[in-house]
Amino acid sequence: MSPSKLDSTDSFGHEEASVSCSKPENGCVDSLSIFHSEKAVEELLQQTPVAGMDEHLIEFSEALRTVAKALRRAAEGKASAQAEAAEWKRRYELERTRNIQMERKVSGNNNCEMLQHWWIRSSLDNAMDMLRIMLPCLLFWEVGKEQNKRIAEARMAEQFSAEKNGDIDCERVKNSDNQSMLQNESNEYSETGCMKHGIWSHEVLRDRESDSNSNADRNKIMRKASFKLSWWCNGENGDQHKHDIVSFERGNITTAERSSKQISLKWESDPQTVLILTKPNSVSVRILCVQMVRWLRERKKLNVYVEPRVKVELVAESSNFSYVQTWKDDSEISHLHMKVDLVITLGGDGTVLWAASMFKGPVPPIVPFSLGSLGFMTPFHSEHFKDCLDSVLRGPISITLRHRLLCRVVRDAAKNEYETEEPFLVLNEVTIDRGISSYLTNLECYCDNSFVTCVQGDGLILSTTSGSTAYSLAAGGSMVHPQVPGILFTPICPHSLSFRPLILPEHVTVRIMVPFNSRSPAWASFDGKDRKLLAAGDALLCSMAPWPVPTACQVDSTNDFLRSIHDGLHWNLRKTQSFDGPRDRDL
């Protein structure tokens, strides 16, 4: 290499270094300058050295390498600063929202204090004037009360004498009947649940009259069956029998108070309408559905609802199934809980998940028949469906309240955490993974306002206790009784030896956020479907939903759970140790 070339290379390196370092912006270096400077360093280092190269050129190349590392650190610092600024912005918006709410509360309290001061400042003369006005009114009221008492006593005496002579006071009977009718009408007022994004958010939903747009052949009012739930231990006659939790009017269940004890359902009125959901593309399920629909209609005189697909199959089988009812669009599905008293599923756990996803609010009791593979949530066998449905319709039966998660996606552009997309209700789990990206997923996790950890791995699973035997189990999570209220926090292949799964209480809100320095976005799936992209700055909020999924038990929730892990997973199945062999000597 000639000296001229070395000089040109030397000047080129100094020029690039001066360009990259001459224009800093707010303490950070431009990314284009970093790219050119690193490229110049790589070209210089790849050149073949000559035999008589001076030592100062070697030192110069080392200096350029140091400068390139410093520029790379500056770029990483810039990205970190941007992420921190975004986090402080989010905290500022939350604090601002809280301050506005506090100001509204304080303004309301100030009005109350002003009224109190005004009352204290009022003079004694004004109080005496008020007493002068009120005393005559009280006097007249006492006099009128005494006169009404005397008139009532006189009427009672007349009625007593009339009844003694054999005459019946028909007018009194009519008045009492009219009063009872008015009271019943006032008690049966309709409370419309506020549906936001298709999720019912009211605490109690009552039955409503059919819409004016309904078909003429369905004008008959169908009343939902009401029932009571109670919790108990050691049987119905045990010493620990508890009082009724609440009478669930019109057959709607809400978790006003959760309990890990056994829960029993007792019908207060006979069920009238049944919804049957089936697994598609199964010949055995189709045959069983035909038998069950015919038996429920002919023997039990029940109204039967099925999916539109199933009704087409039934009508093609025989024209006698014209009495089977169905729905036309999704708007009718959102009001199914007002018509259906009982849901019957013919399939596996996936059919139960599909049945739960149809109800965005209260879910009717579900009777799941096992026609799938494992069946952790399907304890009933199809061979004895008549006996099973007889006992369920007669009652009382044990049920398991399977809690669901309410999941909301908050985008980075949202002003606060209340500006969310359409929420999702999941019965098993919500999964946040890296999708098709080859990089590790990077997730920041918060529990309420407390930082939990930063997940670096394939992803994270937030599961219900009912989903503890699903994906969470495959990722190393614990198996939890479905009646235990809680949220399972299970990592997927974490790049850490000390990252163990957690079980969080039911009352917390878990927030999963994709940081700004993440190399790739994340993907969220809800019960294995409805995948959503989570870009940098987006967050996923998960909390316990107020509407559980009640599933009927063959024996009770504990017996069904233990039998499912024994039969489905062969839990702790091992050969018994041989009786023959060496033993410990008697001490």
UniProtKB/TrEMBL annotation:
Name assigned to this protein: NAD(+) kinase
Coiled coil ranges (UniProt) are: 71-98
Entry keyword annotation includes Coiled coil: yes
Any Gene Ontology biological process: NADP+ biosynthetic process
According to the record, the residues making up region (Disordered) are 1-25
Q: Reaction(s) catalyzed by this protein?
A: NAD(+) + ATP = ADP + NADP(+) + H(+)
Keyword hit for Coiled coil: yes
Q: Say which enzyme class the record assigns.
A: transferase
Q: Name one Pfam family in it.
A: NAD_kinase_C
Key words of the record? ATP-binding, Coiled coil, Kinase, NAD, NADP, Nucleotide-binding, Transferase
Q: Which organism is it from?
A: Gossypium barbadense (Sea Island cotton)
Question: Which spans does this entry mark as compositional bias, Polar residues?
Answer: 1-11
EC assignment: the record states 2.7.1.23
- Provide the family line: Belongs to the NAD kinase family.
Recorded GO terms, molecular function?
A: ATP binding; NAD+ kinase activity
